[in-house]
Amino acid sequence: MVEVWGPLIGGLLLLVAGGELLVRGAVQAAERLGVSPLVIGLTLVGFGTSMPELVTSVQAGLSGSPGIAYGNIVGSNIANILLIAGVSALICPVVVARSALRRDAVVMLGVALVFAALAPLVPMGRAVGGALVLCLLGYIWFVIRQERTTAGGGALHDKSRALAEADPALAPSRSERPLARAVIIAVAGLALVVLGGSLLVNGAVALARGFGVSETIIGLTIVAVGTSMPELVTSVIAALKRQGDVAFGNVVGSNIYNILGIGGTTAIIAPSRVPEEIIAFDAPVMVGVSLLLVVFAATGLRIARSEGLALVAGYAGYVWLLWP
């Protein structure tokens, strides 16, 4: 089994390490080029924890494994809500800002509904992928405009803040380091995530064959949880610091990025159909748990420990249902 688990674990480690280097180099280069710290935080840093999902889904799509590609996206969103938000609430009740609930959580639920509605009707081709990416860019532009005039932020701001607090080196700080050095760091990080994504996909395919289960199940569970590790770490750190609002924003922001950014980019680079298993079961589950999170957050503008326990139990039940 070393031949199976070795590439899988090695790929995950390379993805995490390479993603951090890529974001760090990109942030430093953007600072040297005079990009606004707000824009850096909402784009480069905000996308940092989603880098493993992005590279893995694109690599899986290019390898002809749409089950892993879209299983990773849908499974990561389900894990973000049930597992990560649940664990965060168990550590410290998650306080929810009214603005984050009204704007970002509703957007998260909306994009989940759009994905679930589109998947059975049309292939995830370049036109659909382009539309999803344009929606993400429009959403980021709207958030940047709003946050320039409103103190606090929202889900995208909290997502970048969670990553920056987990690793202060990723926080925009007006670095004076040479541009060439920043570019080299970013390129090295990119090389590592590409290699890590390839290893992870190959390991996942081998694992599916070894266990005699579908690639889709591996993508929805092992790959999805593995690529969601940065979100888990950053949300847990936020919860330990009693910054529940940041943990909530990190989960919501990640789910928006996953569908619009990662799903859109995957469809552009490697067009394919979403597997029937995901259409029939997992996409509706994603919509259902997204709605459940909104309902929990709306009741008293907090997610209590009892609700966190229900979310974690829900994830255990979901995985139990998936595995034969």
TrEMBL record:
GO molecular function (one): calcium, potassium:sodium antiporter activity
Intracellular or extracellular location(s): Membrane
GO CC annotation, single: plasma membrane
UniProt entry keywords in alphabetical sequence: Membrane, Transmembrane, Transmembrane helix
Ranges annotated as spanning the membrane: 6-23, 35-58, 78-97, 104-121, 127-144, 182-205, 217-240, 252-272, 278-301, 308-323
Membrane disposition: Multi-pass membrane protein
Swiss-Prot/TrEMBL GO biological process terms: intracellular calcium ion homeostasis
Domain Sodium/calcium exchanger membrane region residues, every copy: 6-144, 183-323
Pfam families noted in UniProt: Na_Ca_ex (PF01699)
PANTHER family reported in the protein's UniProt record: INNER MEMBRANE PROTEIN YRBG, SODIUM/POTASSIUM/CALCIUM EXCHANGER
Name assigned to this protein: Calcium/sodium antiporter
Organism, scientific name: Paroceanicella profunda
